[in-house]
Design goal:
about 300 residues, alpha/beta, 8-stranded mixed beta sheet, 11 helices, binds NADP nicotinamide-adenine-dinucleotide phosphate
Length: about 300
């Protein structure tokens, strides 16, 4: 497929690689809807915040600190509720959940967008830090907020095609501390496979309700995500960005589409890329591994310092 074809081709949804978050929500009124977006200060989350508020949604924008969340929310004109939610700090996640409840916010969608990449040697609470931040932090947040979801509430996990680089045998239940040496992308991919499996298991638990849970790959976009990776690589990545990569506006499209499109009211347990259902790695469909990850995550959260 030529670059031109890749950019312009559309899938069954009517959208594709080149679609932007503004385009996938064109004509859609989100008045009366409330959407929580994690990591609203940068990259895809910042664009999701901008476009969702532009369409009328109240966006609960979370960031590592309240000051950062406030600054991001102040930069848009729509209705926002800035909140602190440092995903690698369970106390901060718990406080965020408590604040959403205290404010009486009901959520039409939660977009688990925040993420880190490329710091495989660090740990949080004895767990590999990308797994802890990208998966456990969001697991705590979403399971804490299930009661705040509306009857038709949606959970969108921002995973990545990098889940295909996770170790071949899937979630490393015997090494969640990440002490076995792995390549950078395998460690990041492991956390993104966890995002996918979490969406699968949540979708299974939503069965019989009108709530949905899906995962997305946003594309490859030059954002701050690479800040912990090789600076030389990032320099060339940045140079090639405008030619070879999605723009931030295009990168935010899939998560915004899956969180809001009326066409997806009953679509759950799927993996999306370029605003269309896509194929994930085979074991991302492994219901046994997904259930085990949920149960292990519950135990991890229960054992964290109060
Ligand atoms: N860019 C890509 O090519 C690509 C490809 C596939 C998947 N993704 C996924 O897309 C999502 C968005 O990434 P992006 O490209 O927009 O990256 P980004 O520009 O680095 O934005 C990431 C956001 O997450 C926040 N964040 C990071 N660590 C956090 C923590 N511990 N607690 C709370 N918030 C935290 C960041 O806040 P600070 O700025 O304060 O750190 C920032 O707001 C991520 O989940 C990423 O894995 C991106």
């Amino acid at each position: 497929m030529s670059l031109y074809e890749l950019f312009t081709s559309k899938g069954r949804s009517g959208f594709g690689y080149g679609s932007t978050a503004e385009q996938v929500t064109a004509g859609l009124s989100l008045d009366g809807k409330t959407v929580l977006v994690t990591g609203c200060t940068s990259g895809l989350g910042q664009e999701a915040l901008r476009v969702l508020t532009m369409r009328g949604a109240v966006v609960v924008g979370t960031a590592r600190t309240l000051q950062k969340a406030q600054a991001a929310c102040n930069a848009v004109t729509g209705k926002t509720v800035p909140l602190a939610c440092e995903l690698s700090d369970p106390a901060s996640v718990k406080a965020c959940v408590a604040e959403v409840k205290r404010l009486g916010l009901t959520l039409d969608a939660i977009i688990c967008n925040a993420g880190i990449m490329g710091i495989q040697t660090e740990q949080a609470f004895g767990y590999e830090k990308q797994f802890f931040t990208n998966h456990i932090g969001h697991f705590m947040l979403v399971t804490g907020l299930l009661g705040q979801l509306t009857e038709t509430g949606r959970v969108v996990m921002v995973s990545s095609n990098a889940h295909t680089m996770a170790p071949k045998d899937g979630i490393q239940f015997d090494d969640l501390a990440g002490t076995r040496g792995k390549a950078d992308m395998a460690t990041y991919g492991h956390s993104k496979l966890a995002n996918l499996l979490f969406a699968k298991e949540l979708s299974r638990r939503f069965a019989g309700t009108k709530k949905t849970a899906n995962a997305v790959h946003p594309g490859v976009i030059h954002t701050n995500l690479g800040r912990n990776t090789n600076p030389v690589f990032m320099f060339f990545f940045g140079l090639l960005g405008p030619l070879m990569l999605k723009s931030v506006a295009q990168g935010a499209a899939t998560e915004v589409f899956v969180a809001t499109s009326p066409s997806l009211a009953t679509t759950s347990g799927e993996y999306f890329a370029d605003c269309n259902v896509a194929k994930a790695r085979v074991d991302a469909d492994d219901a046994v591994m997904a259930r085990r990850l949920w149960e292990v995550s519950e135990r991890i959260v229960a054992d964290l310092p109060a």
